[in-house]
Every structure is written in C-alpha cells, then in structure tokens.
Amino acid sequence: MENFIITIARGYGSGGRTIGMKLAQELGISYYDRELLRLASHESGINEALFAGADEKLKNTLLFKIAKNVYTGEDIPADTDDVISNDRLFHYQAKVLKELAEKESFVVIGRCADFILRDYPRLLRVYVHAPFEDCVVSEASRSSLTLPEIEKFIRATDKHRAEYYRYYTGREWNDARNYDLCLNSSAIGKERCVAVIRDYMKLKFDETDK
User: Fold this and answer.
1) Is residue 210 part of a domain?
2) How does pLDDT run across 152-162, given as a tens digit for each residue?
C-alpha cells in the first residue's frame, strides 16, 4: 500500500487521542502528536519548550482573535523582529509535517494537519467529537478538579483550538465540511471509531486492508 496520512481533530474529552494511538498501533504506522514539537525543534534549532508554550495557545488579544494568517504553504517567514513568534513556530511544524508526508504513513493529532496537508493525494481527515456532558464525565474520571472547573477547562480548551484553527486556516474547526469523516465517540465507542476509520480508509483509498 502506498503511503497515506490520517489526521484527527478532536474535541477535548472525546477520546480522539486514544483513538489515534490505537489506530496507528493497529495499522503499524507512526503516531505524531507532541512528538512534532521535538521534530520541529530539531529542524529549527529553537528550544522545544518554546514550541510547547505556543502549542495550540493563542495570544489573548482581540487582534489575534479577529485576524487571520492563513497558511498557504509559503516558506518560513523571515520574521526578523520576533524569531520565535507563534507564526514562525507554526511554519516549522508545517514544514516537518510536509516532509514526513513524503516519507511515511502516519496518524497525526491536531496541528491543523488536515489543512496543511489538504493537497496530499492520500489523506483521510477525521473529526472526533462527543456530547459536552460525556466529555465532562470522561475528564472527571481522571482529574482532581471539581466538575465546574472541568466544565470551564473543556470550554476554554475547545475555544482555544477553534480560534487557533480559524487563525491559520480561515475555517471553522468544527465544520464537518473540513473533514472526510466525523465520529461521535460516545455513540459508538472508541474501539468502533477505530474500526469505522479503517473501513472508511479501504473505501476512500480503494485498496484492501494491510
């Protein structure tokens, strides 16, 4: 089978990361999430902690929230006034993603990868979501926060992801039109989400499973 890429965007608490890890394991391919920060750090020579600090976090200014800097695949900007700006760090991550896509099959979580790699011929874009109440219950099972704190955290995290995505893509993060497949993980469970993605792969790529 030729190389292929599966991108997974996910609401917080929906289990998208777990689904992505399980999928990569079953397919025997690489899985990238925070590993991209290390690779981008190596590529740029910029400390990984600086990537982590900018990772899916937004400048808390009105300008950032209403502006757009849609990624068009251009070279990394000179950005001489701020060599570690969020925009520059984003471009390094995009460069690493595109280089990986030329070398191997992989599953990647977040990073606007569905948009960055949108012209890649063998790309499957997945969005995983779940009812807010179920996301709260899921997070409560592994957190020491109170329920009001968890609710506030989930809302803030998803709001940040939506603004980050809008800024770099000009699109709405939870718009089904951005994806090939949208899955409610509460409705069918994580294991079945993995199975559905694998079945969809065979249909989209018109090949037998590995």
Assistant:
1) no
2) 999 999 998 99
Contact predicate 4/122, CB 8 Å: yes
Q: Locate 119 and state its tokens.
A: 């012209």
Give the number of domains in the chain. 1
pTM of the model: 0.83
CATH label of the domain that carries residue 181: 3.40.50.300
Cβ atoms of 124 and 20 closer than 8 Å? no
